[in-house]
Hints:
Elements: H1 4-13, H2 21-41, E1 51-56, E2 62-64, H3 65-80, E3 86-89, E4 96-97, H4 101-104, E5 108-116, E6 127-135, H5 146-149, E7 156-164, E8 168-174, E9 179-185, E10 190-198, E11 206-208, H6 219-229, E12 231-233, E13 236-237, E14 240-242, H7 247-257, E15 260-263, H8 276-289, E16 293-295, E17 315-318, H9 320-328
Parallel strand pairs: 3-5, 11-14, 11-15
Antiparallel strand pairs: 1-2, 3-4, 5-6, 6-7, 7-8, 8-9, 9-10, 12-13, 15-17, 16-17
Helix pairs in contact: 1-2, 2-3
Magnesium ion binds next to β5.
Amino acid sequence: MITLDEFTIQQLRLYPQATGELSGLLRGIGLAAKMVNVQVNKAAIADILGEDGGAVNVQGETVQKLDSLANNTFINVLRHGIHCAGIVSEENEEMIVFDDPKNNQSKYVVLMDPLDGSSNTDVNAPIGTIFSIYRRVSKLGEPCTKEDFLQKGDNQFAAGYVLYGSSTMFVYGTRRHSVNGFTLDNSVGEFYLSNPHMQMPVDGKTYHFDYKYYHGVDQRVRTFLDYCNEPVDNLDGRFANKNAGCMVADMHRIFLKGGMFLYPTRKNKPQGKLRLMYECNPMAFLTELCGGSATDGTRRIMEIEPTDYHERTPIFIGSKHLVDQFESCPVDDN
Ligand code: AHM
Ligand code: MG
């Protein structure tokens, strides 16, 4: 039984030149996740479900009480720690600079979606947290800058997610190591290593897409969806269609069982919905570390040069053979 804290320290020992900062930052995120988990578990009896007084975030989406609570928890824990110079969050239009002598010494900045799939909260369906960690390009000792955050996904140093599901899991990967999953033992309040060296199957049985959008997507996506849905065996479709309404939950299934997640552009959402910097990049980073692929339809997600913290991108991500199959579908020129 190895705890998350012990695991990060063990990893550190493999690199004598390492300073322990990344390990400290990951432990901080783990601590905040446990605090959010406590709130999520009692949400229905603690009056923290539903909308947060009608507030609307920078994305134009209604903020749920749990969105605000998770956001504040992650920000406060990282601000009071010593391993993070600043945060970009889905819930805040501008970057949050922890301009404090201890934080200004930190090498790392974090981008995050504190509560992914928050419309699931009211029906006790899975929700998650997604995070991406970059090394700063600005000078240590000074406050972090916009350039520290606006780096392409290929520069990520680490990334991960937390799934508040039938059990709570913390999954992270770093450039140097594989992806490892930890399950929370609620009675002890510790994450224990449960899924070492995660690898994504190259094939899968599920594709994750909301069919309500079928009519608005382009012909290439429809061709692929039709292939997935084609009757092959006793009239059953080739793959099962799933859609948890929470990217973290959908992707977690894909990490373990294989499959593909699609959130394409459509006529009335020409940029797609999901955010490049704190949803797509971290999932693409973990997916590639596990042997899968992630594309926006024309290039690898992690090659995209960002121009805005909150920019959106279409995404096709998951098991290698399924993404290859999608990419082999003819491009729609209209
Ligand atoms: P959120 O971060 O505001 O919760 O939005 C992200 C979620 C994903 O988890 C999910 O796959 C998608 O939005 C569902 O989108 P839609 O609103 O089109 O159903
Ligand atoms: Mg999200």
